[in-house]
Specification:
The protein is mainly beta. 3% of the residues lie in helices and 50% in strands.
């Protein structure tokens, strides 16, 4: 999982593994769409032959702009919860450390009911389900 998401998306977001976008000091305040607030989960399954790893990436976007993220694997291990802040600018989800002194581009998002599709900066697509 990416260090950027360690702020929020511990290894997320987000599951936002591989995000290598540089931080951006955005001058715009951004927004926090009400339909994005909530607990979101993405399940990643990697497998080969008789071996597989299942990882759940949890992302909680609070209406007040704070967020939490953590991961859990099928064997019960995972990353501890980390906290940060979130906002959107246009169709981009931005995450940052507590205080929001710098922002990381987590990717482009679209919403469809209880699903949030996130296209990471590296092109990977993740579909989060509302919990």
């Amino acid at each position: 999982m990416n260090r950027m998401l360690a702020y929020v998306v511990c290894a997320l977001l987000v599951g936002v593994a591989g995000c290598g976008e540089s931080s951006t000091n955005s001058s715009g305040a951004g927004s926090r769409p009400a339909d994005m607030a909530g607990h979101w989960r993405f399940t990643d399954v990697l497998g080969s032959g008789d071996f597989s790893i299942v990882t759940d990436i949890n992302l909680v976007l609070e209406a007040d702009g704070t967020c939490r993220t953590w991961t859990k694997t099928g064997d019960g291990s995972g990353d501890p919860e980390s906290t940060g802040v979130w906002k959107t600018e246009g169709d981009r989800l931005l995450l940052g450390p507590p205080g929001g002194e710098s922002w990381q581009d987590a990717g482009r998002f679209t919403m469809d009911g209880d699903r949030m599709r996130l296209i990471l900066p590296n092109g990977t697509i993740q579909v989060f389900q509302r919990q």
